[in-house]
Protein backbone atom coordinates (compact mmCIF):
# COMPACT_ATOMS: atom_id res chain seq x y z
CA UNK A 1 0.00 0.00 0.00
CA UNK A 2 2.83 2.35 0.90
CA UNK A 3 4.62 1.65 -2.38
CA UNK A 4 1.45 2.24 -4.34
CA UNK A 5 1.08 5.60 -2.68
CA UNK A 6 4.68 6.41 -3.43
CA UNK A 7 4.35 5.53 -7.06
CA UNK A 8 1.12 7.45 -7.13
CA UNK A 9 3.05 10.62 -6.49
CA UNK A 10 4.76 10.36 -9.85
CA UNK A 11 1.38 11.14 -11.22
CA UNK A 12 0.86 12.59 -14.58
CA UNK A 13 -1.27 9.89 -16.07
CA UNK A 14 -3.58 7.55 -14.26
CA UNK A 15 -4.71 4.21 -15.59
CA UNK A 16 -6.80 1.35 -14.38
CA UNK A 17 -5.64 -2.24 -14.39
CA UNK A 18 -7.72 -5.37 -14.37
CA UNK A 19 -10.63 -4.35 -16.52
CA UNK A 20 -12.08 -7.84 -17.03
CA UNK A 21 -12.93 -8.31 -13.35
CA UNK A 22 -16.41 -8.41 -11.95
CA UNK A 23 -16.76 -5.54 -9.51
CA UNK A 24 -19.50 -4.61 -7.19
CA UNK A 25 -20.10 -1.38 -5.36
CA UNK A 26 -17.38 -0.60 -2.84
CA UNK A 27 -14.80 -3.10 -4.18
CA UNK A 28 -11.15 -2.13 -4.30
CA UNK A 29 -10.01 -1.43 -7.83
CA UNK A 30 -6.28 -1.95 -8.52
CA UNK A 31 -4.98 1.35 -9.79
CA UNK A 32 -1.64 2.31 -11.31
CA UNK A 33 -0.37 5.78 -11.95
CA UNK A 34 2.58 6.61 -14.08
CA UNK A 35 4.60 9.69 -14.72
CA UNK A 36 7.58 10.80 -16.69
CA UNK A 37 10.09 13.32 -15.54
CA UNK A 38 13.78 13.34 -14.78
CA UNK A 39 13.74 14.70 -11.27
CA UNK A 40 10.67 14.41 -9.10
CA UNK A 41 9.84 15.18 -5.54
CA UNK A 42 8.26 12.04 -4.24
CA UNK A 43 6.00 12.66 -1.23
CA UNK A 44 6.52 10.00 1.41
CA UNK A 45 3.41 9.67 3.56
CA UNK A 46 3.84 9.26 7.28
CA UNK A 47 3.73 5.62 8.32
CA UNK A 48 1.52 4.94 11.32
CA UNK A 49 3.33 5.25 14.62
CA UNK A 50 6.43 6.66 12.94
CA UNK A 51 8.87 8.27 15.33
CA UNK A 52 11.84 10.46 14.39
CA UNK A 53 14.85 8.21 13.88
CA UNK A 54 12.84 5.23 12.68
CA UNK A 55 14.08 3.53 9.56
CA UNK A 56 12.01 3.97 6.44
CA UNK A 57 12.78 2.00 3.31
CA UNK A 58 11.30 2.12 -0.13
CA UNK A 59 11.58 -0.10 -3.15
CA UNK A 60 11.07 0.68 -6.83
CA UNK A 61 9.85 -1.61 -9.51
CA UNK A 62 10.35 -0.93 -13.21
CA UNK A 63 8.97 -2.35 -16.42
CA UNK A 64 6.31 -4.44 -14.77
CA UNK A 65 8.50 -5.91 -11.99
CA UNK A 66 11.22 -6.81 -14.49
CA UNK A 67 13.65 -4.72 -12.47
CA UNK A 68 13.16 -4.30 -8.75
CA UNK A 69 15.54 -2.24 -6.65
CA UNK A 70 16.70 -3.41 -3.24
CA UNK A 71 15.01 -1.84 -0.24
CA UNK A 72 16.48 1.65 0.00
CA UNK A 73 16.80 3.35 3.35
CA UNK A 74 15.67 6.95 2.93
CA UNK A 75 15.01 7.90 6.53
CA UNK A 76 16.77 6.69 9.62
CA UNK A 77 18.86 7.44 12.62
CA UNK A 78 22.17 7.14 10.81
CA UNK A 79 21.27 9.20 7.77
CA UNK A 80 21.80 12.89 7.35
CA UNK A 81 18.58 14.81 7.37
CA UNK A 82 17.81 15.11 3.65
CA UNK A 83 18.32 12.15 1.35
CA UNK A 84 17.93 12.00 -2.36
CA UNK A 85 17.62 9.03 -4.59
CA UNK A 86 19.58 8.52 -7.78
CA UNK A 87 18.14 6.02 -10.24
CA UNK A 88 20.22 4.94 -13.21
CA UNK A 89 18.39 3.29 -16.07
CA UNK A 90 20.61 1.56 -18.59
CA UNK A 91 19.27 1.02 -22.09
CA UNK A 92 20.70 -0.92 -24.99
CA UNK A 93 19.15 -1.36 -28.40
CA UNK A 94 15.99 0.43 -27.35
CA UNK A 95 15.43 -1.81 -24.34
CA UNK A 96 15.77 -1.26 -20.64
CA UNK A 97 18.63 -3.50 -19.51
CA UNK A 98 19.23 -2.68 -15.88
CA UNK A 99 18.28 -0.33 -13.09
CA UNK A 100 20.51 0.85 -10.26
CA UNK A 101 19.31 2.95 -7.40
CA UNK A 102 21.24 4.54 -4.55
CA UNK A 103 20.46 6.93 -1.73
CA UNK A 104 22.72 9.91 -1.13
CA UNK A 105 22.81 12.87 1.24
CA UNK A 106 21.53 15.94 -0.50
CA UNK A 107 24.67 17.91 -1.45
CA UNK A 108 25.15 21.16 0.50
CA UNK A 109 24.77 23.25 -2.64
CA UNK A 110 21.38 21.70 -3.39
CA UNK A 111 20.33 21.95 0.24
CA UNK A 112 21.17 25.67 0.17
CA UNK A 113 19.12 26.08 -3.00
CA UNK A 114 16.06 24.34 -1.49
CA UNK A 115 15.58 25.71 2.04
CA UNK A 116 11.89 24.74 2.08
CA UNK A 117 12.74 21.12 1.35
CA UNK A 118 15.33 21.07 4.11
CA UNK A 119 12.95 22.64 6.63
CA UNK A 120 10.23 20.13 5.71
CA UNK A 121 12.63 17.27 6.43
CA UNK A 122 13.75 18.87 9.66
CA UNK A 123 10.19 19.48 10.82
CA UNK A 124 9.08 16.31 12.61
CA UNK A 125 5.44 17.18 12.21
CA UNK A 126 5.62 17.91 8.49
CA UNK A 127 4.33 15.09 6.30
CA UNK A 128 4.60 13.87 3.63
CA UNK A 129 8.38 14.18 3.38
CA UNK A 130 9.50 15.25 -0.09
CA UNK A 131 12.07 12.77 -1.39
CA UNK A 132 13.98 13.99 -4.42
CA UNK A 133 14.40 11.30 -7.04
CA UNK A 134 16.62 11.78 -10.02
CA UNK A 135 16.30 9.45 -12.98
CA UNK A 136 19.24 9.16 -15.36
CA UNK A 137 19.31 7.24 -18.60
CA UNK A 138 22.65 5.86 -19.66
CA UNK A 139 23.46 4.06 -22.89
CA UNK A 140 24.76 0.57 -22.27
CA UNK A 141 27.69 -0.92 -24.20
CA UNK A 142 26.29 -1.91 -27.52
CA UNK A 143 27.69 -3.10 -30.84
CA UNK A 144 25.76 -0.97 -33.26
CA UNK A 145 24.62 -2.46 -36.55
CA UNK A 146 26.92 -0.44 -38.79
CA UNK A 147 29.87 -1.01 -36.46
CA UNK A 148 29.23 -4.73 -36.55
CA UNK A 149 29.15 -4.64 -40.35
CA UNK A 150 32.39 -2.66 -40.47
CA UNK A 151 33.98 -5.20 -38.14
CA UNK A 152 32.82 -8.02 -40.39
CA UNK A 153 34.31 -6.32 -43.48
CA UNK A 154 37.58 -5.72 -41.66
CA UNK A 155 37.73 -9.37 -40.60
CA UNK A 156 36.93 -10.52 -44.14
CA UNK A 157 39.58 -8.19 -45.59
CA UNK A 158 42.18 -9.46 -43.10
CA UNK A 159 41.31 -13.06 -43.96
CA UNK A 160 41.53 -12.33 -47.69
CA UNK A 161 44.92 -10.66 -47.13
CA UNK A 162 46.16 -13.73 -45.28
CA UNK A 163 44.95 -16.10 -48.01
CA UNK A 164 46.50 -13.94 -50.76
CA UNK A 165 49.83 -13.64 -48.98
CA UNK A 166 49.92 -17.41 -48.46
CA UNK A 167 49.02 -17.95 -52.10
CA UNK A 168 51.70 -15.48 -53.17
CA UNK A 169 54.32 -17.19 -51.03
CA UNK A 170 53.35 -20.57 -52.38
CA UNK A 171 53.35 -19.12 -55.93
CA UNK A 172 56.83 -17.72 -55.45
CA UNK A 173 58.03 -21.04 -54.15
CA UNK A 174 56.58 -22.81 -57.17
CA UNK A 175 57.95 -20.18 -59.53
CA UNK A 176 61.40 -20.50 -58.02
CA UNK A 177 61.24 -24.28 -58.38
CA UNK A 178 60.08 -23.88 -61.96
CA UNK A 179 62.92 -21.47 -62.76
CA UNK A 180 65.40 -23.87 -61.26
CA UNK A 181 63.87 -26.75 -63.21
CA UNK A 182 63.93 -24.75 -66.45
CA UNK A 183 67.42 -23.45 -65.80
CA UNK A 184 68.87 -26.82 -64.79
CA UNK A 185 69.20 -28.43 -68.24
CA UNK A 186 70.97 -25.38 -69.71
CA UNK A 187 73.54 -25.35 -67.02
CA UNK A 188 76.82 -26.63 -68.31
CA UNK A 189 77.80 -29.88 -66.80
CA UNK A 190 80.88 -29.66 -64.75
CA UNK A 191 82.88 -32.47 -66.16
C1 LIG B 1 6.10 22.09 10.76
O1 LIG B 1 5.13 21.52 9.90
C2 LIG B 1 3.80 21.76 10.31
C3 LIG B 1 2.90 20.96 9.39
O2 LIG B 1 3.20 21.21 8.04
C4 LIG B 1 3.52 23.26 10.26
O3 LIG B 1 2.23 23.53 10.67
C5 LIG B 1 4.53 23.99 11.13
O4 LIG B 1 4.38 25.38 10.98
C6 LIG B 1 5.94 23.59 10.75
N1 LIG B 1 6.89 24.18 11.67
C7 LIG B 1 7.92 24.90 11.28
C8 LIG B 1 8.83 25.38 12.36
O5 LIG B 1 8.14 25.16 10.09
UniProtKB/TrEMBL annotation:
Q: Which UniProt keywords apply?
A: Membrane, Signal, Transmembrane, Transmembrane helix
Membrane-spanning ranges: 148-168
Question: What is the residue range of the signal peptide feature?
Answer: 1-22
- Entry keyword annotation includes Transmembrane: yes
Q: What is this protein called?
A: Uncharacterized protein
Amino acid sequence: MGLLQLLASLTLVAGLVGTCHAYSLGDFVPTARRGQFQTVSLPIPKPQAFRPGDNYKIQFSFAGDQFVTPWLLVMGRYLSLVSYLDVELTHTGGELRSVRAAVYDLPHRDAAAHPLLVSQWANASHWPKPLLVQYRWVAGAEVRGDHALLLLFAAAAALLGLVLSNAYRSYRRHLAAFVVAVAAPTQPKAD
